[in-house]
Amino acid sequence: MKRYPVCLLLIALLAACQGPEVQEKGGYKTRLSFAPGDETKIAEALLSLTDSSSITLKEGTYKFDNLSIAQVNQILIQGAGADKTIFDFSAQSQGGEGIRVTDVKGFSIDGLTLRDSKGDLIKINKSENVVITNLHAIWSVSDSTTGGYAIYPVMCKNVLIENCYAQGASDAGIYVGQTDSAIVRKCKAYKNVAGCEIENTSHAQVYDNEFWGNTAGFLIFDLPDLSKRGGFVKAYNNYFHDNNEKNFAKSGSFGSTWGVGNAAPGSGVVILAASDIELYNNRIINNNSSAISIVSGFFIDESAGSKINDHYFPIPRNVHIHDNTMEVGAAFPPAVYEHHTGKILVGIEQKLNADDPARKNARLPFITYDGITTNILTKGTAVNPDSLCITQTGPNLFVNVDAMNMTSKNWKPSTDVTPYVCK
């Protein structure tokens, strides 16, 4: 009879007691494997993970209340594929998220579908070196009862979101918030309020994505009272199209001055109070209210100046827009007439056409700029003090809304792009 060392027998015994397979493999010290039916074991395993652990999930549907991972390093959750390994949170009775990841250095999740949680589908908080790939995050319905964010890294560092799909979020399908260094690429987002939002995030690149069928395709926001300031965001080679749906953000968002409820149906790209932005080589097609909107915090909150600090400045600066392909349809989407910001866009178009019959009832120009500059803070008179730089060709390109005078009898929005053409 062959004799085995005592230590090997102990390892085999421990593995049998724990249920899942444990082995040295794939660069992780501990490797766990589960199948449908192991939900209780999975939840317990995630709560007791040690550094350098891999969790492999076999094909099938798993039903969970919620899952949590915290204060551990080098973790991989690996499914059999987004169409094969499914986490169903539809019976969730507690917890704010389907999966919550907190304070993990080196977190990866790959090859799963997350479905129908009450809150966010996956929230990754205060973590570093985060990789989210081949993940589908979906609510079966798209209305105000769904969670705010499908894929939600926040206060993180070094994030990659790749080959993912998000649907049904009542805020943003893919949301990167208060993060330093992020890439969103080769992703799709459909039937959310916002397809993707980069908020108070610095050094982000968003490219090779498709966002369509949302209220708004892509948002770059800086908001006050958050932990850090954003900026240095590049968005290129994306396809933002047919984002014309009703804004179904939760009522609290509509009630909030700063909420995503402000996004008008028919918005392709909205830049709000964000600086050092480059938007180029995108196809921005059939977002039938405004292809690109650039607005300051003052546009939605007249007290924005009182919120200025190291983490927030309300006026967008150093925004470079070039070489995008833009088209809009023949009319505003029906949902815009029921929306507070949407009604403003309709009013701007009507004013332009009333002032200039030669426009022959043309649509709102592709780029809508509120025209609120740092002159209101410095008492200056410069025409373009904040370096809005546009290199685009074609008719009906641009409007400076002159938003500070919208309630004045002398209000006169201007379609002259000359001061903003890149020098």
What features would you describe in this structure?
With 423 residues, this protein is mainly β. The chain has a domain at 139-420. It is 11% helix and 38% strand. The protein is built from 5 helices and 29 strands. It has a 29-stranded parallel sheet that branches. Helix 2 links the parallel strand 1 and strand 2. The radius of gyration is 24 Å and the shape is elongated. Mean pLDDT is 92; it is low at 1-25. This is Parallel beta-helix repeat-containing protein. Residues 81-221 form the Right handed beta helix domain. InterPro entries: Beta_helix (IPR039448), PbH1 (IPR006626), Pectin_lyas_fold (IPR012334), Pectin_lyase_fold/virulence (IPR011050), SO_2930-like_dom (IPR022442).
What key phrases describe this protein's structure?
mainly beta; 29-stranded parallel β-sheet; 29 strands; Beta_helix; Pectin_lyase_fold/virulence; Parallel beta-helix repeat-containing protein; PbH1
Instruction: Give Rg in angstroms.
Output: 24 Å
Q: What is the count of DSSP helices, taking H or I runs of 4+ residues?
A: 5
In whole angstroms, how far apart are the ends?
A: 85 Å
Q: Could you say which structural class the secondary elements and strand pairing correspond to?
A: mainly beta
Largest sheet: 29 strands, parallel
Enumerate the spans where pLDDT stays under 50 for 5 or more consecutive residues. 1-25
What gross morphology would you assign? Answer: elongated
Helix content: 10-25%
- The strand count comes to 29
What is the percentage of strand-forming residues?
A: 35-45%
Give average pLDDT, whole number: 92
